Amino acid sequence: MNNLQALAQRLMALDDKIAVCMRCGMCQSVCPTFRTYYQEADVARGRLVLINNLAHMLLKDPEALAEKLGRCLLCSSCQSVCPPGVKIMEIFREAREVVYGYLGLSPIKKLIFRAVLPNSGLFNFVIRAGAPIQGMLFKKTHDAQGTVCAPMFDFLIGDRHIKPLAKKPLHSILGKVDEPRKEGGIKVAFFPGCVGDKMYVDMSLACIKVFRHHDVAIFIPEKQICCGIPAVCSGDAAGMLKELKVNLEEFAKSDYDYVVTPCATCTSTIKELWPEYAERIGEKEKQLARDIAMKTMDINVFMVEVLGVKATGSPTASATPVTYHDPCHLVRSLGVTSEPREVLKANPQYKFVEMNDHDKCCGNGGSFNLLHYEFSRKIGQRKRDNVIASGARIVATSCPACMMQLEDVLSQNKDGVLVKHTVQIYAESLD
After folding, report:
1. Are strands 177-178 and 217-220 parallel, antiparallel or unpaired?
2. CB-CB neighbours of 205 under 10 Å
3. 355 and 290, same structural domain?
4. What is the pLDDT, as a whole number, of residue 372?
5. pLDDT tens for residues 80-118?
6. Which of 115, 222, 305, 334 would you call most buried, defined as having the most Cβ atoms within 10 angstroms of its Cβ?
7. Phi, psi of 288 (to 5 degrees)
């Protein structure tokens, strides 16, 4: 009975939040999924109608409901233009949690979110075991991006072109890091994210290079794990809470001025979702999550506002044209737009050019890309077309997930444009 009462209360709370929706349709103009197939069920307004009838839909066809809710990128485009300010992302997260609480999580997701990801030793072991054999499973695409594909696993992962796992992850290269502050200096806790640790190691090492150049002391929590966003996107609050507890314990082991991350998704998760989910754990954890959130900064913001990185003036005559893709979690969740461009302009060997629809979603969306790859790729193709039209030879961004998507669509089109993180562009100027 208690479970039924709790479910009823959650449904009533959702109804109250949804009631604010005016059904104006403003979300249609910005929704990347709606712009692909023009189906009402793929836009916020349509999904809110489904959620408003959640109890009925759970009894009628819960699998279909889960499928429709899963076709949202959680990019916040709709929320950013909503006239009455409906908290759409909060509603969608809550609805997914209710639906998957009713359906139950798949065994593989339970294993990943509640056993593998919360255990840094186990997760690192799995990746370490997989890295040496990837050469037998994947083949090179011979593209400019340096991606690989896996034809034998096409039935499972589709025709994705992805960056291979690093031969040596960041945590193995650096080991335990907890440096003392230099006199009068600052200290950061560095959160590279899963992809930054195990795939885009060059990006993370560029961050370390920047810290060293500017005499910033570094703390890297030895057993830090996933920020928890994959579990959140899958409606698995239990998995998110397990991961959050581990991270809070790890980040409490040292003193630092800022938490800095090169991943837009990790940044928004730590700043916005950690305090929210920590309320379900306890008062001590809630306060710690709030303190960490207050200290957390996107690396571009940190470089500009704290380190004083700024444009050097005019680029050189032979400067390479570079454009920039705004990650959704950075531009809409955190309002960060100018700082990444300032970082790019700080290297005179590059000439910044703005592309059309620079702030439109690239289509990755984490689990969305995994579950709806063809859908994701259609959205990504629009971004690729804008990159190419800009004339840039480099497309920079501030999120490893976006980097993966951009590399995939550029590789699929056999384009010669390279993908880099903004910090890599700046770090090159420090040579």
Report:
1. antiparallel
2. 18
3. no
4. 84
5. 999 999 999 998 899 899 888 888 888 989 999 999 999
6. 334
7. -65, -45
Residues of the chain with pLDDT under 50: 1
Domain count, the chain: 3
Q: Say how far apart CA 376 and CA 161 lie, in whole Å.
A: 13
Q: For position 367, which CATH number holds?
A: 3.40.50
Q: Is the distance from CB of 327 to CB of 361 less than 8 angstroms?
A: no
Q: Token pair 């890297």 is at which residue?
A: 220
Do 289 and 332 belong together in one domain? no
Q: Which residue has the tokens 């009713």?
A: 102
Is there a domain that residue 266 lies in? yes
As a whole number of angstroms, the distance between CA 84 and CA 52 comes to 17
Tokens of 150: 């896996």
- Predicted structure pTM score: 0.93
Q: Is residue 350 part of a domain?
A: yes
Residues of the domain holding 251: 170-306
Domain assignment of residue 77, yes or no: yes
Tokens of 43: 């836009």
Report d(CA 372, CA 161) in Å as an integer. 15
Q: Is the Cβ–Cβ distance between 302 and 265 less than 8 Å?
A: no
Query: Is residue 61 situated within a structural domain?
Result: yes
Q: Which of 54, 86, 103 is the last residue of a domain?
A: 103
- The per-residue DSSP string of 86-98 comes to --HHHHHHHHHHH
d(CA 253, CA 222): 10
